[in-house]
Amino acid sequence: MDIIETKDAFELHCDAPGFSPADISVEMAEGMLTISGKRKEEKQEEREGKVLRRERHFSQFTRSFALPDAVKEDGISASLEQGVLRVTVPKAEPTPKPQPKRIQVTAA
């Protein structure tokens, strides 16, 4: 898993060979981005009714990341191309910090 920070966004790159978009879930909740995938594959060869070979393969992964407060949750996008999942999390404009306020001290 690679996490790259650009000027406008955070990009997460995850190798997911053999997974389809339907096998992968990307969720955002309470400042946590969770990426998970689950794939089950069964192969079977038959000749004249006899099972010659049967293979089962199961793959699963889950990764969670805490994101900074200044991200646009609505703009998160994900794509899967040639076995690489790419999740883009756009940055939001940071909220300005309040200026210090001077309090007048008076005599009692």
Low-confidence residue ranges: none
Write down the Rg. Answer: 24 Å
Q: Count every beta strand, where a strand is a DSSP E run of 2 or more residues.
A: 7
How far apart are the termini?
62 Å
* Topology order in helix (H) and strand (E) letters: EEEEEEE
Broad structural category: mainly beta
Strand fraction: over 45%
What is the arithmetic mean of pLDDT? 87
Within the largest sheet, what's the order of strands?
1-2-7-6
Q: Count of helices?
A: 0
Helix percentage: under 10%
Q: Sheet with the most strands?
A: 4 strands, antiparallel
General form: rod-shaped
List the helices and strands and how they pair.
Layout: E1 2-5, E2 9-15, E3 24-29, E4 32-47, E5 50-66, E6 77-81, E7 84-90
Antiparallel strand pairs: 1-2, 2-7, 3-4, 4-5, 6-7
What descriptors fit this protein?
108 residues, mainly beta, three-stranded antiparallel β-sheet, 57% strand
Brief write-up:
By secondary structure, this protein is an all-beta fold. It contains no helices and 7 strands.
Question: How would you portray this structure in words?
Answer:
With 108 residues, the protein is an all-beta fold. It is built from no helices and 7 strands. A 4-stranded antiparallel beta sheet has the order 1-2-7-6, with no helix packed on it. Strands 3-4-5 form a 3-stranded antiparallel beta sheet, with no helix packed on it. The protein is rod-shaped.
